[in-house]
Design goal:
Elements (H helix, E strand, L loop, with lengths): L1 H94 L3 H15 L3 E7 L1 H5 L5 H9 L4 E7 L6 E6 L2 E6 H7 L1 H13 L1
Length: about 200
């Protein structure tokens, strides 16, 4: 039986060697697969991180752009509000001038905007009451050089300036209308003074 034991031992040894070779090859293949999977995983992770960085950069750029746009709109709105406030204060200042200075402003504006021919200078009751006696005669003496004359007329309108009427044509010379007419120039001028 010793021969059979030797043969069985030899078969067992050969089987063990074959198993060891198969296990060794399987371990090598598993290690290679694991190594390849790690490389692929690292490459995929790097691509995901790169994509995330690109998305974060794009999001940050959009946020910065939106913030700049919001800041610009807020600054513009503030400037417009300040300019409107300055214009309102200018109108209130003109309306609150002492009567003699107010009459001078009305006279200067009437001389500047009067057209040749006969017309009407329409004022509110409040503004007409602020003019000195003889205002119409003094004004027409000056306007005569332009070939113009204006008759004072009280009209139901807001105070602060006047309306010139020549037949069917009206020229609005209220302070609000004059400022509105020069709004862009005034905005540019105020903008330079306040925000330069």
């Amino acid at each position: 039986m010793a021969g059979l034991d030797a043969i069985l031992q030899k078969i067992a040894d050969n089987s063990k060697r074959q198993c060891d070779i198969i296990i060794s090859n399987a371990k090598r293949e598993a290690d290679a697969m694991l190594s390849e999977a790690r490389k692929k995983g690292e490459k995929a992770a790097a691509a995901i991180i790169e994509k995330a960085h690109a998305q974060a950069d794009a999001t940050l750029q959009r946020a910065n752009s939106a913030a700049r746009a919001y800041k610009s709109r807020a600054l513009l709105a503030t400037k417009v509000a300040i300019i409107s406030e300055v214009q309102s204060l200018a109108i209130e200042h003109l309306k609150s001038l002492p009567d003699t200075e107010y009459a001078d402003v009305i006279k200067k504006l009437a001389i500047r905007f009067a057209s040749p021919g006969d017309g009407e200078l329409c004022l509110s009751t409040a503004d007409a009451s602020r003019l000195p006696e003889g205002f119409e005669a003094d004004l027409n003496a000056i306007l005569k050089q332009k070939g113009a004359s204006l008759r004072l007329k009280i009209r139901n309108q807001a105070s602060g300036g006047f309306i010139l009427v020549y037949g069917d044509i009206e020229h609005n010379c209220t302070f609000e209308a004059l400022l509105e007419d020069k709004r862009e120039q005034l905005k540019d001028s105020i903008n330079r003074e306040l925000f330069a």
